[in-house]
Design a protein that fits this description.
The structure is a homotetramer of 206-residue chains.
Chain A: H1 2-27, H2 30-36, H3 41-48, H4 51-79, H5 82-106, H6 108-116, H7 126-145, H8 153-176, H9 181-203
Chain B binds a DNA duplex (21 and 21 nucleotides) through residues 1-2, 5, 8, 29-31, 39-43, 45-47, 50-51.
DNA sequence: GATGAATGAGCCTTCATTCAT
DNA sequence: TATGAATGAAGGCTCATTCAT
């Protein structure tokens, strides 16, 4: 019987994913999900607590893992020596980011949900969370490297925020724009160059 | 009586703006707007046709004007000689964009509505429209200047799309992030440098 | 100016007729009629009093005239001597009814409105009014002729009601069923024979 | 609790029947029904799907059964030998029709709803359906018996349509006119004679 | 007399959530 | 634990009618 229930559970998840993708979190109807999934709303409530609980069951593991991967990349890079940062940055980063992209495309539905269908849930600002982390590590990096604008902290912070926003909105655009995985990787490599060049131009750090 | 009616009309617009800003188009309730505005839903329907009509009454004039300003900037720049494009680009663009930013901050509410609260209306892809226009003119520019990647058209288009996305998502972030107008102008100038440097790095056109 | 207004008046009538025909009295919308007719609801109210007033303006003259024609036929026939009733009935009635049918087809729209679209107005039982009159004269006729069933008055009345209903529902079916005028006349002649034969069979009066 | 729920269910049906009878399907208000029935509109929607669903829950079983009874009568009669049709027609038909009338009076409310209050539902042409079936079998009968008018098919069809209309509109008039059951049976017997005599007069088939 | 915005009650329908079974 | 009917509030929208201009 446990297996059957597992089956129902999975069916509900599948159906819910597709409903949330189609309509977004808010417009999606729990009842529709229950019906299509072969269960009842009551059952979904006992299992998942509420509508957002169901959404999170789908999206949270992915989101957590993705964030963890991202933080690990940042952390590792941060712990490189300055010399290594220079020399291995491209290669290391490139490789790690490819891993992340692989992971995103392995969970494409969850990823789109997170980026496009999460309004009304605690993940509605997921991209911002990503951006915040990048900002944090960018500031650490700048501290290490030193930079001329640093005198005006607010200015610096805002600039970093804007540039990081530029980078990540575009980064996630490969998902939103339904690009193929291998192409996405190429585009993001180009995007990295764009970002790097832009970054250096702005901060004049060589 | 005309004045009173004017008054009601304006009150409704004001209230609606604030409701839409707070909840977005979809979650906002016509009934709430009517009540807070001292009218009835019926009255809103006679005036504005329907819920989206009310939203558009607030947002459309601004959106139309903003798009027109943007297109004019692009068109003017496009009609410069290559030489002028080089020499005057920064100055001209900078000035025109400042005008646009002024206009956006003069209509801050409408602008935020357009960028953050328009899901469910015909403006839900407003940023994308902006991006499309920029892409179009970028392609015209690249045709003029020539570039090495042009051989692979799909690749070129996607790259331009990504970079443009980067630029504009970040551009509008000054609004979304509630930055002050004068600061916003500074940030966007920096962002322009970022974008320019990135663009040149990617397209290696000097 | 009077003429212009006449024009508007007529336009409204025309439009209203078509709206009422399409949707019936209840579902038709005054506002739609006003708009399509190039006026305003207010104007319709000053002219016609209310929604039903507009309906009646279209339908009442026709209804009154039709009823009058019908009553005249009945009254004339009633005033024939018994001998004449026998001899001239067919010819006279046939001719008069043809006149009535002509009149109905000359005002086909009004007639359909009366028969099919008048629910919610004082004419919603128009056919019943017709039937009542016929019943009245049938009873007068039976009194003259004498008949065996007359002993049980209630029974007689109900039978007459049913037979009359049969006749007139079928009579008006030529309109409802969109038959051509000349065909309608033929059908109604046949229907008269049907009715006559049935009547005689029921009342065994020779 | 099941009993209570049964109770609510039945209460709603009862109330709805009376509301629909009073106002017809279209004018009847779900809210009123819900309130008078001691429930909520939401509950009605879970049970019946929508307004028409509620109406059909009341009326459809009856309509289906009635139509079935009618078709069975027609079919049986159709399968009689010509000789039997003559000899047993009156008796057989009379008996079967009495059964049908019994059934109609057992479900008087549903029957009135069907005949008078179903505009806006899929049963709005119920009488026409009845008439169509009778027409069909009448044509079969005429084919068997042969008739002089048959040469002109359109004419024949229209005449049959009219006569059948006459018969059934009058037939159902016993319900609409609130006659008592036993009287209704008598009237309908008379009506049968009327129809038979009329039919023979028209088709001159002896 | 014409106007048409305002009224305000009403419509059907949908929803996430609860809870007795 | 699963069920699914009940809840009750809320949704957008339409309407005939009124009335100040």
């Amino acid at each position: 019987m446990a297996k059957q229930i597992e089956g129902v559970y999975e069916k509900v998840i599948t159906v819910a994913k597709s409903e949330f993708l189609q309509n977004g979190f808010q417009r999606a109807s729990l009842r529709t999900i229950a019906t299509k999934g072969g269960t009842t709303t009551g059952s979904i409530y006992t299992r998942f607590g509420d509508k957002e609980g169901l959404f999170l069951a789908i999206v949270e593991p992915f989101a957590t893992k993705l964030l963890a991967m991202f933080i690990e990349i940042q952390e590792n890079f941060h712990n490189f020596s300055r010399k290594d940062q220079r020399e291995q940055m491209c290669e290391y980063t490139s490789h790690s980011v490819d891993n992340m992209i692989d992971f995103m495309y392995e969970h494409l539905g969850e990823c789109k949900l997170l980026l496009e269908g999460s309004q009304g849930t605690k993940f509605e600002n997921f991209t911002d969370d990503f951006i915040s982390i990048e900002e944090e590590y960018t500031h650490k990096y700048i501290e290490t490297v030193g930079c001329e604008i640093c005198e005006n902290l607010k200015f610096l912070k805002d600039i970093v925020h804007m540039i990081t926003t530029a980078y990540f909105e575009s980064f996630f655009e490969v998902i939103r724009h339904n690009m193929e995985k291998e192409e996405a990787k190429k585009y993001i490599k180009v995007l990295s160059n764009y970002h790097l060049a832009g970054f250096e131009a702005v901060f004049q750090c060589t």
